[in-house]
Amino acid sequence: MSSLLRTLRDKRELFAGGFVILLGLGTILQAQSYEIGSLTHMGPGFFPIVLGLGLTTIGVLIAGNAAASEADEAGGVIPTQPQWRAWLCIVAGPLSFIVFGKYGGLIPATFACVFLSALGDRDATLRGSLVLATTITALGVVLFSFLLHVPFSLLRWG
Fold it and tell me: How many domains does the structure of the chain reveal?
C-alpha cells in the first residue's frame, strides 16, 4: 500500500489533473448563479458552464492518464533543484507588461513581457528570445490594435 501512495505522490500529472478538475467544477458552480439560456439565445452563464465542463473533462483525462501510467523518476511534484531564473522570469514577464503597458503602451509592454518570459527557458538564447518577442509583438499589434480595435495605445510616454 505504501508503494501505491508513493507512486501517486510522485506524479505531477495526477495533481495537475486534479487541479484542472477543481477549476472546472468551481467554474460550473459559479456559473450557476447566472442565467444559462439556450443554444439559440445564450445567457451570460452559458459559456462559463461549457468552459467548466471542458476543463473538468480535460482534467479527468489528464488525471486518468497519470493514474494509468507508471511512475517515472523525474515525475516528482517538488523539483530536486529549484529553477530560480525561470521562476523570476515568468513572474517578471506579466509584471513588466503591467508597468510598460501603463507607461509605454502595447508595443513595449508586449515585447518586454514575451522577452522576459522567454528568457525563463533554460535553453533560450538572447537572439531566440528577441526574435520571439518581436514576432509576438507584431502579431499582437495587428490582432489587438488593427483587427479587434482594442483601446490600448501602441506607444505613449508617461
Answer: 2
